Records
---
Amino acid sequence: MNITFIGGGNMSFALIGGLLQQGYSPGQICVVEINAERREKIKHEFDVEAVAELAKGLSGSDVILLAIKPQQLSAVARELAALLRSHLIISIAAGIRATDISRWMSGYARVVRAMPNTPALIRAAVTGLYALDGVSAEDKRNTETILGAVGSVLWCNHEELLDAVTALSGSGPAYVFYFIEAMQKAGQELGLDASQARQLSLETFAGAARLAIQSDEHVATLRARVTSQGGTTERAIQSLENDNVKHAIVRAIHMANQRSRELGDEFGRT
Ligand SMILES: NC(=O)C1=CN([C@@H]2O[C@H](COP(=O)(O)OP(=O)(O)OC[C@H]3O[C@@H](n4cnc5c(N)ncnc54)[C@H](O)[C@@H]3O)[C@@H](O)[C@H]2O)C=CC1
Ligand SMILES: O=C(O)[C@@H]1CCC=N1
């Protein structure tokens, strides 16, 4: 299975790195990238072919992975329409609907919409997937192999759920970093130096997440176990509740979901 990436930015870097580590050979991968500096970087980093012209990048490829910004997608998809043979198309663009990509490509229906996240860089991504009806069982397995090279994958049965995936896990690493930023700030205000605050915050976050993954219990139960009656955690959680922090986080994720849908509507009209 030969893969052509359209766009050689951050996400393509993560995915290509994962595929090569999984045993893919550089000869199976090609990148179409309009920026000459990026092309050089890709060649230098991975020893894979990087070209500027779409048609040149597609020769011999079975899968086209669209990794350009949502704003650039409709023009590229329309250009692709005339060049398609029997390619599987996978798009990772936020918000852009598989149904619109298919429409821009004159109804071509072998389209999968995927939403990975940046932990792909260390092969710890989670990716939501949605397939149009024209995608075969083999196409689905190939999609799982490609996105599975950088982490775990899950299929959604309805396209709207990809907006939810985008809001929860696509953007999610930013929420986690935001929380860690706050923990580090507090640690330093309490007299720890930057490196101590970093170590304590990050390892607490990673340890708690690992514990939750390995435990069969609900996270609320795990939280209760940290919270001694009359103790320090109780005081902190009460403060979070008084400030309505859970509500604020839930609202933020709804906002991201709304933005993903807006992106779909915005470009769906074109
Ligand atoms: N950054 C993130 O956390 C995530 C991003 N995404 C999605 O992945 C897509 C790519 O995101 P990034 O890699 O972060 O963006 P990026 O800006 O790092 O990469 C995009 C690349 O595409 C190139 N490009 C632009 N127009 C092109 C064209 N016509 N032909 C070929 N190359 C072209 C640009 O020069 C750039 O190198 C976006 O649609 C984004 O919504 C999906 C999941 C997570
Ligand atoms: O912020 C964005 O639009 C992209 C999609 C998910 C993560 N980054």
Note: The chain is about 55% helix and 15% strand.
---
Amino acid sequence: MIETEHLTRRYGSLTAVDRISFRAEPGQVVGLLGPNGAGKTTLMRLIAGFLLPSAGTARVCGHDVVREPLAARRVLGYLPEGAPSYGEMRVREFLTFVIRMRRLPAEHARQRFERVVAGLQLEDVLEQNIATLSKGWRRRVGLAQAIVHDPAVLMLDEPTDGLDPNQKHGVRHLIDAMARERTILISTHLLEEVQALCSRVLIVARGRLLADAAPHELEARSRYHGAVSFSAPGAGMTPEMLGRLPQVAGVEIDPIDGRITVFPRPGQRILEPVERLLREQGLELIELQLERGRLDEVFRQITLEHQAGQP
Ligand SMILES: Nc1ncnc2c1ncn2[C@@H]1O[C@H](COP(=O)(O)OP(=O)(O)OP(=O)(O)O)[C@@H](O)[C@H]1O
């Protein structure tokens, strides 16, 4: 479990993390989202005990990270931003070194080494110097060091940054598989990653926690929530007719691809009446979609509103 209370970090006059309180429980993958410079990395460094807070507290599995740093670090796996490691070491040497530092008993150490190497498919690079690995491979080695001691709490700063689509898929699968009994906090700029992985999202901007909700709760705040969109060449008068349906609040046509989006009035379901009208018109639909809401739009709305309200 991770718990923070009014956690704050100042750099001179800048407050990089501003009174952030949240709690992440076992079984949850919590996504940390925010614009550049929002304070995500600083927040993770505070929880990892790499930085001291200016005020407030952070606990990992009940251990205060300032007063009980060793106990807190023992149960924590951390992949820092950019996955720094020792370039001159070979991958095998580096992981063996981390295992030794973690003081795993010999039998368990062997098992964990094998599990992690297989899970992250590191077999082919074990004898390679870390400095000569590509960015994606270095990140996988960084992930390996974060999970090698099978920690109860895992904190990953942009874990799929620089990975190709197949590697991204593999790492997300791995995180998902580890999530069941662990508490996982990941920072990311990728909204599709939040949708694929996270049970909760924390949105931060300028050091402040602005939202703490499940992805579907955030999607429900989007103006696209419950809208119906479709592509239909030769739709002609159809948008106007759709606009006259009593359940419909408005219709928009994308100026680039011509896609039509129909918005419901509050509390109205419009899929059926829209489909019926389109059928009556005899339109050839390429596809029709009931929108869940768009996280990118909600993210922009929350973070820009906050920015506008700041001096
Ligand atoms: N050592 C430092 N000294 C002074 N200011 C710092 C220091 N470290 C971070 N900051 C500032 O604190 C703020 C938060 O930075 P942080 O790296 O935590 O943001 P972030 O959300 O991780 O950004 P990104 O998404 O770009 O990685 C930024 O304004 C940054 O310039």
Note: The domain at 2-220 is CATH 3.40.50.300 (Rossmann fold).
---
Amino acid sequence: MDSDVSERRFLDPFAGKAVSPPPVWLMRQAGRYLPEYRQVRVEAGSFLKLCYTPRLAAEVTLQPIRRFGFDAAILFSDILVVPDALGQTVRFEEGEGPRLDPVQTLADLDRLALSKTGSKFSLVCETVERLRRDLPQETALIGFCGAPWTVATYVVEGRGSADQSAARHWAYRDPDGFQRLIALLTDASIEYLSGQVRAGADALQIFDSWAGSLADDQFERWVIGPTAKIVREVRARHPGVPIIGFPRGAAALLEGYIEGTSVDGVSCDTACPLGLMQQTARNGQVVQGNLDPLLLVSGGDALDRRVDEIRAAMKGLPFIFNLGHGIVPDTPPDNVARLVKRLRSTN
Ligand SMILES: Cc1c2[nH]c(c1CCC(=O)O)Cc1[nH]c(c(CCC(=O)O)c1C)Cc1[nH]c(c(CCC(=O)O)c1C)Cc1[nH]c(c(C)c1CCC(=O)O)C2
């Protein structure tokens, strides 16, 4: 692992240092809005092939760093690599999103196994190793996984859904059976994240994109519990590596999430009020967020104004500038350049 991490300003907020201007990276900063990504994507053939080809996955991770000079790169992979590695069939249909053979019974679940994950996880770790070698010294590298609850919604439903009802039903109907699925995803995520840190990741993010669809008692059991376990186990193996949680849509439960999981930072979604972000950061928590990805599509003066507003609200606090959710494909790359320039234009 690289020893000289001191010059990576992305890590400063986690060491209690206020940084001005704040460090910046954007969720989905690698992806289809970049023509050079689309070219590599065609070369790879399938999306999962891209994730499992270290040379190409590293290349698309580096593309936004070359263009925009973000303070952190995020490993190019996907949250659905975990069920794929466990033995579930996962496909990405062009323009339709992910398709998985749904796991809906204990017999389906028994076909998945932690013992199968080795070869695919090691390809992702090889990408991380390459990246730590090829990234600029000052750029931090973020590894990631999906939170067990969010990954489970895809595993059970077999695709993205509006209300995550298949997973929510299973959790009510047969909590013990559903717990087995969550436990398997939790254990796999611990292995996956630990491997990424061993390979050179400087920080980790746990994406819980569907955290907001659960009743509060269910949130406690399926979001907080498993996330707390991942944080505990990864931290025991790799003390000092910051872990950021992204419980999207759960601003009302943010305090309980932070306390219950003991994450080092929280990524706030677009609907999270700036006042709550300030309050959270004043309590010493690192906060990340939360520009609306659609404002990055429309751009112009309105983009500048909102960038200034978020930055001013979080000034002097442990803050990392980001979006409230991922970049969308029709984002003009020039608007991303404009955002970074605006953010860095003054101290
Ligand atoms: C829910 C989720 C997924 N994947 C992810 C989440 C959590 C964050 C979120 O809520 O957006 C996370 C993810 N997916 C991807 C990354 C790579 C790193 C980065 O942020 O730059 C990360 C961190 C690449 C990707 N993952 C995917 C793409 C686009 C596919 C392509 O290039 O063909 C990329 C760049 C595909 C994907 N992957 C997933 C879906 C639903 C889709 C289809 C939707 C879409 O097409 O945008 C599952």
Note: DSSP finds 15 helices and nine strands in the chain.
---
Amino acid sequence: MEGEMEMSMSASEDMEMGEDITPPLPPLAYSLHDAFLLSHCSSCFSPLPSPPLLPTNSLLYCSPRCSSSSLHVSTAELHLLQSRPSAIADTSDLRAALRLLQSLPAASRSLRAGRIAGLLTNRDKLLATTGDEEFVGRIREGAAAMAAARKMRDGDEAEAWGPDDVALEAALCLVLTNAVEVQDNTGRTLGIAVYGPSFCWINHSCSPNACYRISLPSPPACCAQARLRIVPCARHCREAQIESGVCSISELTKDEVCENSGPRIVVRSIKRIKKGEEVTVAYTDLLQPKAVRQSELWSKYQFICCCRRCNASPVTYVDHTLQEISAATLHSSSLRSNHKFYSDNAIRRLTDYVDDAITEYLSVGDPESCCKKLEDILSQGLLYKQLEGREVKSQPTFKLHPLHYLSLNAYTTLASAYRVRASDLVALSSEMDGHLLEALDLRRISAAYSLLLAGATHHLFHSESSLIASAANFWISAGESLLTLARSSVWSGFVKRGLPVANLSSLSKYICSKCSLMENFKAILHHRQPQNTDIEGISSEFLDCVTNITQKVWNFLIHGCQYLRVFKDPIDFSWLETMKYSGIGNVQPHLSSPAVDSYHGTEGSVSICEAHMYIFQFGVHCLQYGGYLASICYGRHSHLTDHTRSILDCEEC
Ligand SMILES: C[S@@+](CC[C@H](N)C(=O)[O-])C[C@H]1O[C@@H](n2cnc3c(N)ncnc32)[C@H](O)[C@@H]1O
């Protein structure tokens, strides 16, 4: 019976922050999302050297080796791809479930005590989901499609011991409950993978002490020497029950470190962990406020998180900030007394508005209209009349806090949309220097949004240390964005106008002599473990160095963007802690005509050449600091893309 037994994992020894807790674990099953079936290898997930021009219903491999390592693939998958009902948009969950059943010995395929091969299926809970008939319908329909595909494959010869419909449903629920996303090194989600109990028995916390990384392709051999440093714990049942109800725990975790194809997962500590302490990871985006996390965890896994962060009363500073909106001019007493009603309504509308603008950009790809919509809502908020459809005397306005999670989502999209606009412009008219300067404007603003995002996350990371992976990623993105800007051809527009720009041919000229970031960064690049994991020390070195540069370069980056002008500094948000946020001014964002001529020579500002040099230096610092944080949470192997290495000119390091 489901619910009798809860598994978790705890540390078998003391661990420092930034240590591997498991060796690279191979998946039990994995599958590409449908969108990548024609472009990526179904075994190692690498891009295919020569993708087929026409759709095909077979699975594709990059090499004979990958093709021969695909014995675990269920041939029913091909039938599923041919015959899937059109309502099933993506079959990766179903194919992973078919592969899982295929890969297990017959004895472990059946559903016992709500588990298959020791992994929780959650079937009873997921199917009992009240109020989400659509979700339940999708599980039933998916299991039916799996059954039909197996039948097409086996005909009358169907295996007598084959899984019944309940087991197929359970296998699908197991995938929904246990699978993790597999991303490539640009952050695209290529598919999913399900791992064995050593990973899948790790519970969730919104303030976790561990994180995981997935290696594509297999990690270097040195990683494989790491040991498994966690042990299973069973709650609400005696060990004997587990042994008889599922199978022996030691059996289940023993053979996971074996030669096998597919993306490997490694769990890593992001806090100091004591022997016996439960090890937890995040199942959801930690940069969301409590209500959003809880709703996501409930709809996907059917549990209510009771971690330290969720149980804090009053809510933690980070959660408060991520959900704060301001309601300016709530003068009338009826409006004041209904404040909660109006704010809840406003937040729903603001969420829909931001989500729609982002979804439209991702599907239709109109970056200009997306920038306008997002900057309008960030600057102006929602007027009461937009909420209620009627006017009142004093129009209240509901605005997102600049560190509200929707604002952070908007900054991510704005950084991307401005970058795309700049690239489109350069591609269209590389010869026209007017367009080059306009492209520079767009690229500056893209870099400014990246920087704002990194600074905002950094501020929150100071109060919630488990945000380390987000901080690392955003600092790396900001660094890449600034270095791409500094190295961009758009600066040639100035040279044509006779204005000098910096000579960036030698990185060493721009390396800071005041901080040890470069030393730490070199250690990461040269595959040595960073020596010093004293984040506070490194962090304050970084801030000391960049505070100066920020003052010199921020105005240049944001020139012409009215929304960004309200931020005096993208890194120092300390004013938020001391001042009740009351909304930023009503500004109308627009892009000025190419900003740089008017910027050049403005009193108190730096010259174009200096701005260019500072942008480069700033980018180097952001990348070094982000790289340092990433080395703690991902280890020294994985986080730097080839692109980052090349823009940093690593041979000089
Ligand atoms: C990947 S499994 C984790 C291992 C699981 N506890 C087990 O017994 O196999 C995910 C499931 O564990 C449970 N779970 C994970 N984290 C939890 C938490 N913080 N509180 C309550 N249940 C949790 C939920 O049932 C969830 O669907």
Note: The chain has a mean pLDDT of 82.
